[in-house]
Amino acid sequence: MRHFPLKCNFTLKPFILQTLPLFTSGLYTFLQSEPLWQLSIHHGPLSHSGGWSPMVTDQEPWLQVDLREQMEVTAVATQGRYDSWDWVSSYLLLYSDTARAWKQYRHEDGRFVGNVNSEAVVQNKLSHAVRTRFLRLVPLDWNPSGWLGLRLEAYGCSYKSYVADFDSRSSLLYRFNQKSMSTVKDVISLRFKSHQAEGVLLHGEGQRGDYITLELHRGRLDLYLNLGEIRLRFSSGRVAVTVGSLLDDQQWHSVHIERFNKQVNLTVDSHTQHFQTKGEGHSLEVDYEVSFGGIPLPGKPGTFLRKNFHGCMENLYYNGINIIDLAKRRKPQIHSVGNVTFSCSQPQLVSCTFLSSSSSFLSLPSAASATGGFSVRFQFRTWNPDGLLLAVQLNPEPQRLEMQISNSRLQLTLHSSGRPKLPNHSTAQSGFNDGLWHSVSLNTRNLQITLAVDSEPSSSIELWEQLEPRGNLYFGGCPTVDCQYLTPAFQGCVRLIFINSQPMSLNQVQQGLLGNYNELQFDTCNIRDRCLPNLCEHGGRCSQTWSSFSCDCSGTGYSGATCHNSIYESSCEAYKLIGSSSGFYSIDPDGSGPLGPAQVYCNMTGKIIVIHTLSPLPFLSSTENWQKFNYSASAEQLRAIVSGSEQCQQEVVYNCKKSRLFNTKDGSPLTWWLDWEGEKRSYWGGFLPGVQQCSCSLEENCMDMNYFCNCDADTDAWANDTGILSYKDHLPVSQIVIGDTNRTGSQAVYHIGPLRCYGDKSIWNAASFYQESSYLYFPTLQAELASDISFYFKTSTPSGVFLENQGLKDFIRVELSSPSVVTFSFDVGNGPAVLSVKSHLPLNDRQWHYVRAERNVKEASLQVDQLPLRFLEAPADGHLRLRLSSQLFVGGTASQQRGFLGCIRTLTVNGASFDLEERAKMTPGVTSGCPGYCSGSSSLCHNRGRCIEKSNGYVCDCSQSAYGGTTCNQEVSVSFDMESSVTYTFQEPFSVMQNRSSQASSVSTESSSRAREDVAFSFVTSQRPAMLLTVSTFSQQYIAVILAKNGSLQIWYHLQTDRSPDVFSPVLTNLADGRLHRIRIHRVGKNLYVQVSSGEPPKGRENLNEEVMQAAFKGFIGCLSSVQFNHVAPLKAALTNRGSSLVTIRGPLVQSNCGALAESTSHTLQDKEQHGNSTQKDLAVIAGVVTAVVFIAVCALAVISRLLYQQRRAQRSSSIKEENRHSMYTDYRTELHLNNSVRDSMKEYYI
């Protein structure tokens, strides 16, 4: 936020007040003799007159203020008209230097809050000051029981202005007193307004390769800055830092650049970019001069040609030097090139804005043409990919000509009836919805239509006869009485309209003297960049239309309308609870927080997270040796994983020969390690922190009891000190330092094992509330733009508030509003918004129920258990920020009413877990934990089974699990022959089949793009091709999983019926090999992830309908086991509910036990993982003379494919191997063989 000058809050007077002279209204006008103070706000005794009120017949009233000169405005205050029922309750504020081109002041949602009566004063402080001469207040809402009226005051101060005008052929050169100027700190500030989207504002360079260039490019501000990196001198290597957007709007914009050494802050208006410069140097060395407004000598070495700046600069300071003041006083340091003037010219580029995508239009008469035909020329800018620009009826009848934007291209269509049809003409250039001004010229003379766009060569269409306009020309849209065809109206800005070379005056249109219009805003181009700032999280790509923006989350690992939600689980424990088997997984330890996903190995039997070290061999020396360790996760991710786990440990091994750990006279350690924060730790594995001892001392079995470690005995024989580091606050090990290797005969081999973490301490973190007035409190939610809240609850009471956080007016609340209804409500300034989910069964049944509520700037959602996800769209151009100030209350409210009675567990907000148990220990009326069999971490029910409390025990509800048995751990397998099949009919539409983690799509709010599939099954077959599983709808959408002719796995998605299905093969090897294979498919919106038991990089294929038909014809011969689709287990339903109307069985089905193979396979995988861990070690040999380097082999496979709706792409990283001979360990072990390999079977596809 910008800080205003001290005491810049004076009342700005006098005013010159004007009203819009609309011809249709007899407006109240202010006479010259009327005292201006009657329209001012009175804080003391009120005047008995004063105030502005338009005539009731005025359709578009506004009030305009002339401050006589440019002022810095910091606040605006309003008051109703004296002694009346007239006031304005909300309004827009526009500002201008010329009273011709206006810009709307953006006050969050654009609206300013006005008055609620005629006497109270409401002041709105501007978050950033504006420097302007004219203000315009446009009323939006007023007293419904009266009329609109107001008294107005503006607050601010005057300021000193130094202005220079550049005409795109001029510049100012600031020349140094010496040959070059070298600076370690630079401060550059200026204000500018531009007539064009391109132009250099500042440039300087030096012979050693340094340069600084500030330029407008496509309406954005680019800063190129390099310190001493010679290879970046040429344009191909230059990288710009870009800030701002739509800066060619003829309004003032402020720029501030601060550089200290390599750190730079670039601020444009209120948007700041922090970055570090390229190059090795820390100073900027510029030779001879710095130029402003352009590069006057394009032949200079190392420069690149750019358009010069066309516009005005104000208060240009370069390292404290007022450049414009020096130029104005003709000082010798300043050299002027071309015509630089010191007053800002005011171009008459008046724009109008087409507001509605359905009803806006501008109708203008066609001027007479002496040569026949007609010509039209104008400029436009928009964000929309489609819209009608021009429509005109033609003679001879019936013909019409349309110019429109279609799929971001400009398209010209001549509609002729009864005449030879001419082809549509589309420009080769695309991207006309980029928000920039584009010029278009159309001419129908000389029996041809000529179209010219921007600076591209014109193109022509030959005609059979001369065309003449019939009636009016329609811009941006067309009333239905004149145009009997459907074309989206244009939303955007238009200016500089010429018909038959005659300029069209928009002022006359506005006054009703020329043409006609509907839903237009004059004197301003009210375009805004909704992607600045980018509200898409986690690297989501923002795109926009005129009225909204959307986020493309492909490849980010997140989903939702703003890419807020992680598509990964937060821990191995969470994967285990949904029935996943051991293997490599991506986990997101902070959920929707800023950390990304990390790849780990999950051992589901022991619920272990294994994070391997990826460190190379250490650098060895004859004195002190150290090794820094890298992991397959970042330091922040590691810390989040460790903090969220119940316990963690890391094995350390030190094999020594005359190499001590701690045995010194002064007690200082010879060997130590650094924890995750870089703190020095001198205790070894197996002992407590802070004590320089080893595990053999604790176990009293050291080889020499005079020492606390085996290696401290300092013998000529190999010894070993091994132990486990288990103090979580110190893990993982980041570095090790070995000191005692500089003596003759000293040798050492160390090993730091992988980090292993157990459990998830947040999943069963619970609190019990047994007093209605009790609650837990936590710090205020940080939820201005986005927040997600999830938890489990169980209760027997009919209602109660789960959590609440309030602000001055805003609030957010989740509650059980009735026995079967959960309600999520909030207010961000647009009025209370309420989302409710009603269950067909009571929720106060003393069983655990899941709730997830999310709110972002696009939408809000509420999920309860497996019930359909409910959404609520955010209002267009409404308030965005949720402003909270009180503490977060859990289990109750600040008023201590409607408190919750029952248990809450696993409370997570924005990816951060809340420690309910610890806070409950110090809160009356609340206890830690929750009573009952189903409230612990013992995982009584497996594979998505739900634990149900009973009075004398518990039972497992396996209805949504693919497994059976009392604890949902018995596999359900069926043997099929060629005639066998099972069909399951869903009771809900395919497009909304979602499970509890269902989330909104990244690019659309339609239910089909919000869909999520979780498919898992195992199979054994020798047949190929074979149909494994299909899901289809009546609208011909389908998902198919088949084995192709060669036995490879193929997954088909046909979600868009107007295009070919998308197909890929995650495994190219033959899976019809009579062995068990496990498949898991997971889709969220446009992101698809596949895990297979083995595989190769996927290959995309298309147009394989015949192969699917062959697979369907062949059917399936073999065994299927544990089939799960979202929360439905169709195979189990076929065996246990044979009479159900939802299940159709054809042919013989024989229950089998082939799934038992899956269990043995799982154990085999775990054994392999454990065996890999035993050999996957980072070792180093340390001695006085280095004679060998240990080899480490790392194999990594990463596959990324773009699929469904977009192009595909694949990326592979190949294996890397390094081999070196071994000779040093003959006295330690006969052979040392290391093989560090990581293979990830999870493939990721971005649809």
UniProtKB/TrEMBL annotation:
Keyword Secreted: no
Annotated localization: Membrane
Residue intervals of the F5/8 type C domain: 49-157
CDD domains: EGF_CA, FA58C, LamG
GO cellular component, one term: membrane
Main subcellular localisation: membrane
PROSITE patterns attached to this UniProt entry: EGF_3 (PS50026), FA58C_1 (PS01285), FA58C_3 (PS50022), FIBRINOGEN_C_2 (PS51406), LAM_G_DOMAIN (PS50025)
Entry's transmembrane regions: 1179-1205
Domain EGF-like intervals: 527-564, 931-969
Annotated protein name in UniProt: Contactin associated protein family member 5
Family statement drawn from the similarity comment of this UniProt entry: Belongs to the neurexin family.
Organism encoding this protein: Sander lucioperca (Pike-perch)
Lineage of producing organism: Eukaryota, Metazoa, Chordata, Craniata, Vertebrata
Disulfide-linked positions: C903-C930
Record's bilayer topology term: Single-pass type I membrane protein
Keywords carried by this UniProt record: Disulfide bond, EGF-like domain, Membrane, Repeat, Signal, Transmembrane, Transmembrane helix
Domain Laminin G stretches: 163-344, 351-525, 765-930, 989-1154
InterPro entries, A to Z: ConA-like_dom_sf, EGF, FA58C, Fibrinogen-like_C, Fibrinogen_a/b/g_C_dom, Galactose-bd-like_sf, Laminin_G, Neurexin-related_CASP
Signal peptide, first to last residue: none
Fibrinogen C-terminal domain ranges (all copies): 563-605
